[in-house]
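Inputs:
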Amino acid sequence: MDVAILTSLVAVALSSGTSIILATIGEILTERSGVVNLGLEGMMAIGAVTAFAVVYYTDSLALGLLVSMIAAGLVAAVHGFLCVVAGQNQTLIGIIIVTTGLALAEFLGQRLGPSNSALIGVTTAHFSPVEIPVLSAIPFLGKILFNQDPVVYAMYGVVVLTWFYISKTKYGLHLRAIGENPRAADAMGLRVNRLRFVYTVLGGCLAGLGGAHLSLAFSPGWSNTLVGGRGWIAIALVIFSGWNPVRALFGAILFGGFSILQFHLQILGSAFPPEFLAMLPYLLTIVVLVVVTRWESLSKRVGAPAALGEAYVREK
Amino acid sequence: MPLVRMKGITKHFGGIVANKDISVDLIPGEVHALLGENGAGKSTLISILSGMCHPDGGEIHIDGEVARIHSPQDAIARGIGTLYQHFMLWESLTVAENIVLGSEGHAVVLRLQEVVDRINHLSRNYGLNVDPNAYIWQLTVGAQQRVELIRILFHQADIIILDEPTAVLGPQEVGSLGEILKSLAAEGKTILFVTHKLDEVMRFSHQVTVLRDGRNVGTFRTDQVKPEQIAILMVGHQVPSAINTTHPLGPTVLEVSTLSALNARGLPALKQVSFTVRAGEILGVGGVEGNGQEELASIITGLWKSQSGTVTLNGVDITNASPSFIARVMGYIPSDRVGTGLIPRLSLALNTTLRSQARRSGVDRWLLDLKAIRRRAQDLIATYRVHPSDPDLPAHQLSGGNQQRLLIGREVSLDRRLIIAAQPTRGLDIDATYQVHQLFVDLSFKQVAILVVSTDLEELLKICHRILILSRGEIAGTIDPDTTDRTAIGLLLAGQKGDPRAV
Ligand SMILES: Nc1ncnc2c1ncn2[C@@H]1O[C@H](COP(=O)(O)OP(=O)(O)OP(=O)(O)O)[C@@H](O)[C@H]1O
Ligand SMILES: [Mg+2]
């Protein structure tokens, strides 16, 4: 394999992983606050289909992104209401939201197309790579990092900002506090459940944006299998990254890389059946992350927010 | 002119009356001590004032007007700062982050270096040793208590409430806390503090209020009342002070030899420690907290690993044995009762089963025998006078002292020949403390070996046959409570200081 092919492969891996990174970052914010949102897959699908439909009707990519975030954010608000405000079981609600979200996205995909027909097969405006002068001239890395579509660039910002926000700002400290010991946070004057609701919605918005990247940039168009388990990979990544945004980035690129690799193997033809190859990225990502996490947790204390998944109610 | 007036505060929990028509006035520039038996309602009153709990009746006035305190936010806005009986800390955050939370100021980006400097400053000025960059999970309970105290100072509240701040502190730290309270009062702050120690009340407070069964049974100027009067008002009868501990000792039960270990921060915690405990002996381990006492208890009980040396029980090597094995051979009363000792959300009945796999205990089969468990729990609750006595209540609904009674009862009723007890009377009222001391002495008469780790030297002097003083992980000396005079003990403890990094 020569260098040009390798760079383009890694560049596509990055693009392929972008939706996952966005959803992962969203989930990291949600989980750091103490709420588990298993509904990512459904929220990404909602984001993808609404973004695509909006662009189809308005030709405005920016509006598409915005609507994807609003739509998925609304779904997350339902999760937040049921789990944070009403104190329902977060796992159960999350799973209901996945199935309902996927079904709703499928339904919208059938109806939002030209004259009430399906969106499947429809083409619209979409994002394409924008080469950034100077930076893209950096050998090897330039072509990978700086010849991408605008959503990928936005993702860089989201990763760095989130990392900075969580570890360096006052609000990030509050975020960690409500997920680690909500009672103490309450005693110190933080509005635990209000904040948890906000971070649940925010997490949903980012998952929606991730979905929009799929339908508007990575593989423009809509199909029922577009999200294809990326929401679940994102949830796994949250855990393997140790709730750390920067490490999540590498996990997502890893997954992107494996999925591109299996795609190429399929094209080149291989002894293995394509269904088997399609399974590989999921499997390999998990294996690599398990190994890395295991190796690392021996030296450091990485762990879930202590109050993850527990509703907080102040005793009367 | 009082700054805070609590009028007719009433609070029920189900059928239990926690506070009944309590009125207390707090005057600026004064320290007000709040006293009462375990379960008397002190923490409840404090939770009401700090917004963690809603009263059923009564009013709080601050600065002459009615203050509606519906949440901790309201209380904080009114200038109330609270140190709770059960720590409000974040294990995964650093000391500095724990302390600054809630008073970060307007800047969005944290300036942790400034916070660290301020903490170091406070810690030097007030004699409270902490490392601002340590994580809470690395600290002993005493160090965590110091973090809570520094936080109170850091937040600069006008009305300062402290619920049993001295329970885990050593004598020197209690002394410095007293000085802190006095100087804060001199600055015009209003202070309410809960303690079970009468001498602290006499030394530090201007006024004292005694609660009993949820009622205020008397408020006095401290200089116009005698400690005995307060004690009788509090428990209803006189509490004896001396205990007879003389009886013959049996063969060696526990032998620790050349034990060395690191603490949670990877620094040396124990260096070549050797001693034995004989059947019927109560051996005390004292010294300034954070000098290896916690690690020693944890290693013997299998919760922490030693680096070298051995621990033998009746001649059998149990060095670094698994906690589940250890649970079968000794009783253990850990110093953090709600973390290691009890499971807060579990009922009292199930909490009593946690360490027993004995036959007919109700947990020796596949299916729990809930009837047997409840019956045994009821016996235990009655014997150790846990209140309230409903075995189905979750453990977190008990007052701190009653949780401790349950824990001690559970471990003692396991009927082991060796008991390791860390801070066994922490948070117990004077009567209950006496009961525990008497219980330990009774057990020693039955040839049970007991190792008591305590920062309270008075306690050790009262019940122990021998006391080891640990300093920087080494045995600095041995005290014989009968013959060693006070000045010798003073010398042994003097000059000894906790290594701030080894806490
Ligand atoms: N959340 C709760 N639910 C039910 N009962 C409670 C709750 N909190 C306290 N109680 C009960 O109210 C009574 C008073 O408890 P409180 O914690 O105020 O006692 P305390 O004086 O602080 O005792 P201690 O010295 O042991 O800390 C106790 O009988 C206790 O069991
Ligand atoms: Mg209390």
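The first helix of chain B runs from residue 42 to 49. Flag for discussion at group meeting.
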